Amino acid sequence: MDKKRGEQSVVFDNPPVITSTALIGGPMEGNGLLSVYFDKVMEDNIGEMTSWEKCESYMLEWVITTAAQKVQISSTQIDYILAGDLLNQLMATHFAMRSIGRPFLGLYGACSTLAESLLLGAMILDGGFGKTIVAAVSSHHDAAERQYRFPTELGVQRPPMAQWTVTGAGAAILSTIGAGPKITAATIGRVIDAGIQDTNAMGPAMAPAAADTLWHHFQDFSRQPSYYDMIYSGDLGSVGKTLLIQLLDEKGISLAGNYEDCGCMIYKAEQDPHAGASGCASSALVLCGQLYKLLLTGQLRRILLVGTGSLHSPTSYQQKETIPGIAHAVAIEV
Amino acid sequence: MPNSSESGSENRPNFTWQYQTKLDQVKPKPPLAKNLLWAFMVGGLICTIGQVIQNYIIEFGFGKQEASALTAAIMIFLGALFTGLGVYDELGKRAGAGSIVPITGFANSIVAPAMEFKREGYVFGIGAKMFVIAGPVIVYGTVTAVVIGFIYWMLH
């Protein structure tokens, strides 16, 4: 009955099923590489709302209700909602939850929140504490920019290493019964600080955390990367991706051939996202859209999603602190 | 990569240094020639527009000092206008210091936060946040002026 594996991992006796997903994005995301997978693409980043924060709440609420509608689940059948976003005090999530009115646990793991909510949701279901859970996250480019960086209309030049926060939200319904890909195992990450101070280098700041979690995942389950059809990191971007491959190479683990970063799968090069996408919605859009479809059609049978989060705050970097990173891995199999 | 045995231990500074070196090796370099050209062209263009305006004002019979003040006011207005139209951030993305250093960039740095924080109200939004970028420039600009003024007064 012991479901703990090795130092940091867990395995599920009754793997929860992802029965439905929904995703929404802004116009830039809608014009990107994932365009065919969206349930809805907004015309602009604010819609009918009066603020970006309200727009983010709207997106989160929309994906949760849409994902539930797809499998004809009424809101009373949702046992718990596990959700989070990037804003202070989880503003977007909390305000979206006002109207949904279901039992809710707010999570903050920066951009790793989707993986965190999936693995906690799977634990709750496998523990027998409920039948249906929604895991959902959102991020909003402009709302994040004004909180973490500069006003959006300020004429500043971004370095090539910078990443673009995704405007969008994704939700996944986890259930004890039903058809679909299953969450079979997970590895919970540790906070790793590699000493990076530059807030434009978030991918590189998170790569050591991703490497640490992956290494522990392979140790805990005695697996090789080849066990998975594909391994996806959340939002390391092109620079962080290169560093993760290097870090694992040094440990004798080769990711060559079956590894990609979700941050590199959202925007086209001509959209000028610099090093790629970031934000909670980076892994959410890729997982709830493209990967979920590929899992359903059987083109992918085993994947490992490594959600990566950069745990700095506007206060921490002004106080010259380095950037701690975290990564959680979730194995999804058909 | 730190493994279990070295987490939070004395090996960390060494790892940090090695990792920073690794990052420096793989991080993409900014396109220097392109950025310089953009900065030169945009910065030059803004200054040329300013000069044209100043010459025009002088032709109306204003003195050079009055013309300078009027030109600065007009350039600040234009900087604010193009910020409001959503053009200045696109310009700044490409031109960098070329559009930050001229007085239009100063206007941008005040109007951008004012627009951004309007939703938080006129007092705690616009009023409090307007100088969040330009504030330090004004503070240290004033301090520098006082110091230089004091030195000038001592020498004369």
Topology, please?
The complex is a heterodimer of chains A (334) and B (156).
Chain A: E1 4-5, E2 9-11, E3 17-25, H1 27-30, E4 40-41, H2 52-70, E5 80-84, H3 91-100, E6 104-106, H4 113-126, E7 132-139, H5 141-148, E8 164-165, E9 168-175, E10 182-187, E11 192-193, H6 202-221, E12 230-233, H7 237-250, E13 259-261, E14 277-278, H8 280-296, E15 302-310, H9 314-318, E16 324-333
Parallel strand pairs in A: 3-4, 5-6, 5-7, 8-14, 12-13, 12-15
Antiparallel strand pairs in A: 1-2, 2-10, 3-9, 7-9, 10-16, 11-16, 15-16
Helix pairs in contact in A: 2-3, 6-7
Chain B: H1 12-26, H2 32-59, H3 64-84, H4 88-95, H5 97-100, H6 103-116, H7 122-129, H8 135-155
Helix pairs in contact in B: 2-3, 3-6, 6-7
What does this 3D model show about the protein?
- The complex is a heterodimer of chains A (334) and B (156).
- Chain A is α/β, with parallel strands linked by helices and 334 residues long.
- In chain A, 33% of the residues lie in helices and 23% in strands.
- Chain A has helices at 27-30, 52-70, 91-100, 113-126, 141-148, 202-221, 237-250, 280-296, 314-318, and strands at residues 4-5, 9-11, 17-25, 40-41, 80-84, 104-106, 132-139, 164-165, 168-175, 182-187, 192-193, 230-233, 259-261, 277-278, 302-310, 324-333.
- In chain A, strands 1, 2, 10, 11, 12, 13, 15 and 16 form an eight-stranded mixed beta sheet that branches. In chain A, strands 4-3-9-7-5-6 form a six-stranded mixed beta sheet, with helices on both faces. Chain A has a two-stranded parallel ribbon with strand order 8-14.
- In chain A, α2 crosses α3 and α6 runs parallel beside α7 (237-250).
- The longest helix of chain A has 20 residues, at 202-221.
- Chain A starts with a strand and ends with a strand.
- The mean pLDDT of chain A is 95.
- The longest helix of chain B is centred in the N-terminal third of the chain and has 28 residues, at 32-59.
- Chain B has helices spanning 12-26, 32-59, 64-84, 88-95, 97-100, 103-116, 122-129, 135-155.
- Chain B is mostly helical.
- At the A-B interface, α6 and α7 of A face α1, α4 and α6 of B.
